Every structure is written in structure tokens, then in C-alpha cells.
Amino acid sequence: MDLTLYLQFFLGLVAIVNPIGLLPVFVSLTSHQSDAERQRTNAVANFAVLVILIVTLLAGNHILDMFSISLPAFRIAGGTLIVVIAMSMLQGKLGEVKHNKAEDREAAVKESVAVVPLALPLMAGPGAISSVIVYGAEYTGVVNLMGMIAAILTFALMSWGIFRLAPAIFRLLGQTGINVITRIMGLLMLSIGIEVVAAGIKGLFPTLV
């Protein structure tokens, strides 16, 4: 059991999803709801994220095999996507890169926003899914899978706690404080993306490295 691996996996999810950076989006999407409805949306969204990421972790390797995609090639693709999202985060545009105006209009008329667009694609988006697939394909075995499932569960509980206190945290940090945290997470995420791309290039062209 490699606790360092599971901690790295957990911190990667924190940086990529950045639940604190999504607080303004969460508050906006649930502004029409009562406190009880907001907490239900929070619980449903994070449970959906938990299910999506665990299913992705368990099925990711089979998906790559189904499409005959090598792990190094997927590393480069996933790492590039993470870099693109990180660059947007560094500019304070996390919400814009994870959902567009059309999705905003669709969300505005929906009674429930917990699963779509909150859980997918805002939280369990392409960046998080790519990262989970890479880890699941590289670190196989029951022990590693159980460790990463525990990390996903811990992340979902942490995210649920953050969203539960969303109004208070938003008032405390303000938009400026959230933007600062988003940029810090973006820098960490950019580093993760570059590491993933570098590992993919090394896997595809071992003689060049």
C-alpha cells in the first residue's frame, strides 16, 4: 500500500476539480433554491461525482483497450487537456472553460442542477476523468484500486463539506480570495499536466529521453 500515491492522487483531484473555485458557480446555480434544497443538490452532486469517478477508475483501462489507445498516448492527450484547463484557471476563468453560455441557459430552466451541469461536467469534467483513467490504468491491483477509491470518497466528502458551507465561505473569501485560490490551484494543475505529458512522451519515445 503506497500512501504517497493515494495522497498524490487525492491532491491531484483537489487541484483539478477545485471545489473552492466552483463556489461562485454553485451559489449561482442554487440561488433559487431553499437551504434544504441547496443541501440536497449538494449531496446528490457529490454522490454523482463519487459514482462517476469510481466507475471511470474501474472501467478506464478497459475503455483504452476497447479503442486500442495506448496509455502513453492517452497521457499526452489527458495531460494536454489538463494544461489547457490550468491555463484558464491561471486567468481566473475556471467557470468559462468548464461550461458555456448555452449550458448556463439550459441550467437556468432546470428544476435540478445537481447531476448536470454541477456534477458533470463542472466537477467530474474531462480533466478529472482523464486523470482518474491515467492512474487507474497505470496502478492496477486490488490494493491500489481500493486505496484510490478511498481517496475519491475522501475527496467527495471534502467537497460536500465545502459546498455545505458555500454561502459562508463565499462571504468570507469574496470573489478576490476565490480567484487567488483558483490561480494557485491552476499552477499546481499546470505542473500535474506537464508531468503527465512528459510521462506520455517518455512512454511513446523511450529512446529520446
UniProtKB/TrEMBL annotation:
<keyword id="KW-1003">Cell membrane</keyword>
<keyword id="KW-0472">Membrane</keyword>
<feature type="transmembrane region" description="Helical">
    <location>
        <begin position="142"/>
        <end position="163"/>
    </location>
</feature>
<dbReference type="InterPro" id="IPR002771">
    <property type="entry name" value="Multi_antbiot-R_MarC"/>
</dbReference>
<protein>
    <recommendedName>
        <fullName>UPF0056 membrane protein</fullName>
    </recommendedName>
</protein>
<feature type="transmembrane region" description="Helical">
    <location>
        <begin position="113"/>
        <end position="136"/>
    </location>
</feature>
<keyword id="KW-0812">Transmembrane</keyword>
<dbReference type="Pfam" id="PF01914">
    <property type="entry name" value="MarC"/>
</dbReference>
<feature type="transmembrane region" description="Helical">
    <location>
        <begin position="43"/>
        <end position="63"/>
    </location>
</feature>
<feature type="transmembrane region" description="Helical">
    <location>
        <begin position="184"/>
        <end position="205"/>
    </location>
</feature>
<keyword id="KW-1133">Transmembrane helix</keyword>
<feature type="transmembrane region" description="Helical">
    <location>
        <begin position="69"/>
        <end position="92"/>
    </location>
</feature>
<comment type="similarity">
    <text>Belongs to the UPF0056 (MarC) family.</text>
</comment>
<feature type="transmembrane region" description="Helical">
    <location>
        <begin position="6"/>
        <end position="31"/>
    </location>
</feature>
